[in-house]
Structure formats: structure tokens, C-alpha cells
Design a protein that fits this description.
The chain is an alpha+beta fold and 405 residues long. It is 38% helix and 21% strand. The chain binds histidyl-adenosine monophosphate.
């Protein structure tokens, strides 16, 4: 779990604000849900046999004995809120986005943390493949706005409750015949969660599954047609992608379209964003039978990929250096008026020498400085210095606020 310090928080604010701007133009409105939810929300939606639910959740009993969990992801909480607040009654389509901290007790490494942040978006109510393509276009648009191009979009279809069980059984049969070759973890989970074996990083499992059956070759007609149209719309919108038939996701609620935005710049944590369709999830949580599709972006991973030099540090517009107590009082009033007008102004509070004050102004990168001493108080005039080119201009102290704001 990391602190985000003031010298890098500008990058975070840029990424968050740009997301709200871009998503806003596609009609997504921000929703904020609590960091804590009832544990069963996650076990029912993400799935009992997933790594997240089996090993990674921060779960505890509160004082009244309820089992609560720090949210490991944002989709289930947003669906809970969607149902509880009857958002389905407001419009046929609900487009919601969120930014916030998520918690998973994973082994930390570069790009993987126990408290991390996601920017997510969920479009609820539409089964048409146009919305899948639209959500992917929005993700694509966001990445070009923030200037990250070293990513590639991988898409897949995971079928539905009609076609997946048959495929699942075929995969189990395939794995059973090669059980000896699998790692111990996969030998344990291949019956409960055979798709995860396709995602295992162990060399032995990779080798054993090269010729494993793929879901996209076993889709029912409806899923096949849905996936075909998603790809057709992506082509139409000129969103580049590749089909990755081996892609599985670490959460059980997905059906049909799934996708990941991957990069080779972050070592093994190669997904900067991921998501897919979750028709059936809302109904399984006690809500209306509405489909949904969405994604979440890992904010820390974006920060790691962004060239920090692109981000200009914010600097004060003015530093007022004061000589003597009377001047300091006058400087204080001037500074406060300027701040109230929206002009970032700084001064010294410690009675430092003029030299020390100017050194600090320089270090802070102040655009302009103003020196006030007895002489300036008497004449009401002071020199406003432009720090970039050292040019000076005489200004009246009583019109300084108008001059600068
Ligand atoms: P997810 O694949 O578990 O999906 O996470 C989405 C993204 O969050 C990942 O691609 C990664 O960038 C980031 N992420 C996940 N775990 C960590 C971690 N420990 N440290 C840093 N970053 C991490 C979901 O969470 C789904 N709720 C996405 C979704 C939304 N599907 C539909 N709608």
C-alpha cells in the first residue's frame, strides 16, 4: 500500500480528470460506493473458487458480527448500488463510472499492490454488440488522450451458460489426460476452475495446453454471432485489436466478450486494463435481468507507464518577499487577497533574510516576485520582477490585486 506524494499527485489528477472528461462525452456519470461491502457480495459475484475470493480478500467481522470485505474490485459494488437504488427505473441504459481504491492481498511486486486504484466504467442494460464496441472505443480514446500508445487490445469470447458447460467438460477431459504434466496448483483446481489452467504462468502448464480446445471454437450460434458483430464494429470504428483465444479472466461473472489491454513495459503485470460482459450478474444479485459490459483500468500501472516529464509541476504565480514587520503584515494582506482571487501567492513566515526569501522563491519556481520594504510602504510603489527574464516593472501596491488576478 503506497502513499501518493505531492510531487507525483499531479499525474494522478491528470489521469483521473481526463477519464471523467472522456467518459463524460460518452454519457458516463460518476458513482461513488463505499470501500466496504458485505463479504457475500463478492463471493457470489466474483466466484467462490477464484483466487480473489479464495485467497486475496481483506475480510473481517465487524462489532455486530457481520462479515465485511474491503472491495477487491468495483463492478460488484456498482451493481449492488444499481439494484439497491433502483437506477434501472431512470433510463433504459445506465452508464456509470468510478475511480477508487481496491484491496487485494496479493504478493506485491512492480505494478501489483495490496491497495491499488481503478478507473472503471460499466454500461448496463444493452445486449447489442454496439455497446461492447463503444466501451472499447472509449477505452481506446482515453489511452490516446493520456498519450499512452504502447498497449494492445486483446479480445475473446467466453460463451454463455448455454455453450460454456459443454466446452468446460471438453477442457476438463483434455486436462485429465495430461494431469501429470500440470503444476500442483492446476492439478488441484482443474476440476473446479479448468479455464484458469489456460492462464497459468508455469512453463509446464503452458506446454501442456498449447493444443487445448478454445472457447471461441465452441460458441453457440448466438454467442458466435455476438462476437462476430463486436469485431465488425471494432473494425468499423477503427479500433485495433487481436483475438486471443487463450484469454481467461480471474473473475467468474464474465460471459461472451472479454478483453485486456496489455503492454510489454511492465514485466509480468502486463494488463493495464481489463473487462468484459457480465449478463446475468445483476439478476444473480437479486436485481432485474439486465446485461452489462465494462472495464477497469489499473491507475498505478498507468502512472508507471507515463513519462513523468510530460507533467508540468504547478508553481506559484507570485512570491512576496518582505523586509521588516510592517512590510510582512502588508505582504500578508496582499497575499491573502490574491489567493482569494485565485492567484497562487506565497511568502515567508519565518522572518528570513531577503536573500533566503529569494532563494525560496526561486526554488519554488515562482513566476514573479515582489519585494516590499519600508521604502515601498512609504511610496506605495514596488518592483514586480519576472523571474524568467529578470525584467522589472513598477506597480502600485493598491492596484496589485487587479494587476495580477
Ligand atoms: P481485473 O482484471 O481484476 O478486473 O482488474 C482490472 C485492472 O486492475 C487490471 O488489468 C490491472 O490493471 C488492475 N489491477 C488489478 N489488480 C491489481 C493489483 N493488485 N495492483 C495493481 N493493479 C491491479 C476487474 O477488477 C473487473 N472489475 C473489471 C471490469 C469492470 N469488468 C467489467 N467491468
Amino acid at each position: 500500500m503506497n502513499d501518493v506524494l505531492p510531487d507525483v499527485v499531479g499525474v494522478w489528477q491528470f489521469l483521473e480528470q481526463t477519464a471523467l472528461d472522456v467518459f463524460g462525452t460518452y454519457g458516463f456519470a460518476e458513482i461513488r460506493t463505499p470501500a466496504l461491502e458485505k463479504t457475500e457480495l463478492f463471493s457470489r459475484s466474483i466466484g467462490e473458487t477464484t483466487d480473489i475470493v479464495e485467497k486475496e480478500m481483506y475480510t473481517f467481522n465487524d462489532k455486530s458480527g457481520s462479515s465485511l470485505t474491503l472491495r477487491p474490485e468495483g463492478t460488484a459494488p456498482v451493481m449492488r448500488s444499481f439494484i439497491q437504488n433502483r437506477l434501472a427505473t431512470q433510463d433504459a441504459v445506465a452508464k456509470l463510472c468510478y475511480i477508487g481504491a481496491m484491496f487485494r492481498h496479493e504478493r506485491p511486486q512492480k505494478g501489483r499492490y495490496r491497495q491499488f486504484h481503478q478507473i472503471g466504467a460499466e454500461a448496463i442494460g444493452v445486449e447489442d454488440p454496439k455497446i461492447d464496441a463503444q466501451v472499447l472505443l472509449m477505452l481506446h480514446h482515453y489511452f490516446s488522450r493520456i498519450g499512452i500508445s504502447a498497449v494492445s487490445l486483446e479480445v475473446n469470447s467466453l460463451g454463455c451458460p448455454v455453450c460454456r458447460p459443454g466446452y468446460r467438460q471438453q477442457l476438463i477431459n483434455y486436462l485429465q489426460a495430461r494431469l501429470e504434466a500440470l503444476c500442483s496448483e492446476c492439478q488441484r483446481r482443474y476440476l473446479n476452475n479448468p479455464l484458469r489452467v489456460l492462464d497459468c504462468k508455469a512453463e509446464a502448464c503452458r506446454a501442456a495446453t498449447v493444443a487445448a480446445p478454445a472457447m471461441i471454437d465452441h460458441l453457440c450460434d448466438e454467442c458466435d454471432e455476438h462476437f462476430r458483430q463486436v469485431r465488425q464494429y471494432l473494425d468499423l470504428l477503427e479500433v485495433p485489436y487481436v483475438v486471443n483465444p487463450r484469454m481467461v479472466r480471474g473473475l467468474d461473472y464474465y460471459v461472451r466478450t472479454t478483453f485486456e489491454l496489455v503492454t510489454d513495459q511492465l514485466g509480468s503485470q502486463n494488463a493495464v486494463a481489463a473487462g468484459g460482459r457480465y449478463d446475468g450478474l445483476i439478476e444473480s444479485l437479486g436485481g432485474p435481468a439486465l446485461p452489462g459490459v465494462g472495464f477497469a483500468i489499473g491507475l498505478e500501472r498507468l502512472v508507471l507507464m507515463l513519462d513523468k516529464r510530460q507533467q508540468k509541476a504547478k508553481v506559484p504565480a507570485l512570491f512576496i518577499a518582505a523586509l521588516g514587520e510592517d512590510a510582512a503584515r502588508q505582504a500578508f494582506v496582499l497575499m491573502s487577497k490574491l489567493q482569494a482571487q485565485g492567484v497562487w501567492t506565497e511568502m515567508d513566515y519565518m522572518g528570513k533574510s531577503l536573500k533566503a526569501q529569494m532563494r525560496r522563491a526561486d526554488k519554488m519556481g515562482a513566476v514573479k516576485t515582489l519585494i516590499i520594504g519600508d521604502e515601498e510602504l512609504r511610496t506605495g510603489l514596488a518592483q514586480l520582477k519576472n523571474m524568467a527574464d529578470s525584467t522589472q516593472k513598477s506597480v502600485r501596491l493598491d492596484s496589485l490585486v487587479e494587476e495580477l488576478s
